Amino acid sequence: MSHLPLNSLNDLLEVEGANGQSVPYLGYVEATIRFPKSLLGVNIEVPTLVLVVPDMCSTLSSVLIGTNTLDVLYEKYAEIAPQNFESLPYGYKVVLKTLEIRKKQSVDSNLGEVRLHSRDLETISAGQIKVLQGSVSCRISDVGKWVIVESPKSSSLPGGILVTDSLVSLPPKLSRCIPVTLKNESQHDITLSPKAVIAEIHAVKSVQPVKTPRVVIRCRSGRNIRD
């Protein structure tokens, strides 16, 4: 891709690796990836942004295709080709099936995203579990009282940060804040930027009370305590 103009990343985003260190990207190029008819049964072209890294390992060039390209591929494939993956090579069949599930989950239950409410940087120490307040941005007005908080699929959290799935009640106010439990499973501290996407909220079909068995505890005095 040396014939394509290299653009700077400085004004777009800052990329971190799993260890919290900056990734030395040289920039990005605007390219079109062509998925051939011999593999998908139809020619599909996807315009995308390609990040360029320094060639530090070998003289051979390699390309890693991410979901920013594959999600678009699936949408185009679903429009012009029958959704029958059985006749495709195994690797493509697995990828398309995974993208189909991602698409259904996103359309069916995703109600919005949760951004870090703090205006300051938030640092989560190595191995620490931390509850942060998140501002909810809903895609629809009638969300309901209860929602599920899960890891974001639209954007990636720093490597090592995991979201604890939870059921929360949305405040009635227009500016909604909910608690999000994050765990740093890495061996180094990780800092989150203000307004960073830290979770997603999903629809709840039903909430049912769990019947807990009654426990009878017999004390030394012979009196029974029922719980």
Give an account of the 3D structure.
This protein is of the alpha+beta class and 227 residues long. Among the domains are: 55 residues, no CATH class; 94 residues, Deoxyuridine 5'-Triphosphate Nucleotidohydrolase, Chain A, CATH 2.70.40.10. 17% of the residues lie in helices and 33% in strands. It contains 3 helices and 13 strands; from the N terminus they run βαβααβββββββββββ. The protein has a 7-stranded antiparallel sheet. Strands 1-2 form a two-stranded antiparallel sheet. A two-stranded antiparallel sheet has the order 4-10. A hairpin with a 5-residue loop joins strand 12 and strand 13. The C terminus is likely disordered.
Sum up the structure in keywords.
single chain, 227 residues, alpha+beta, Deoxyuridine 5'-Triphosphate Nucleotidohydrolase, Chain A, seven-stranded antiparallel β-sheet, 13 strands, 17% helix
In short:
The chain is an alpha+beta fold.
Mean model confidence by pLDDT: 78
What pattern of helices and strands is seen along the backbone?
EHEHHEEEEEEEEEEE
Helix content: 10-25%
Q: Profile the largest sheet.
A: 7 strands, antiparallel
Count the beta strands.
Answer: 13
CATH topology of the domain at 110-203: Deoxyuridine 5'-Triphosphate Nucleotidohydrolase, Chain A
Structural class: alpha+beta
Question: Which of globular, elongated, flat, extended, rod-shaped describes the shape?
Answer: globular
The CATH superfamily of the domain at 110-203 bears the name: Deoxyuridine triphosphatase (dUTPase)
- CATH architecture call of the domain at 110-203: Distorted Sandwich
**Strand line-up of the largest beta sheet:** 7-9-5-3-11-6-8
CATH class of the domain at 110-203: Mainly Beta
Number of helices: 3
Cα separation of the termini: 70 Å
- Over all CA atoms, what is the radius of gyration? 23 Å
Strand content: 25-35%
The unreliable regions are: 217-225
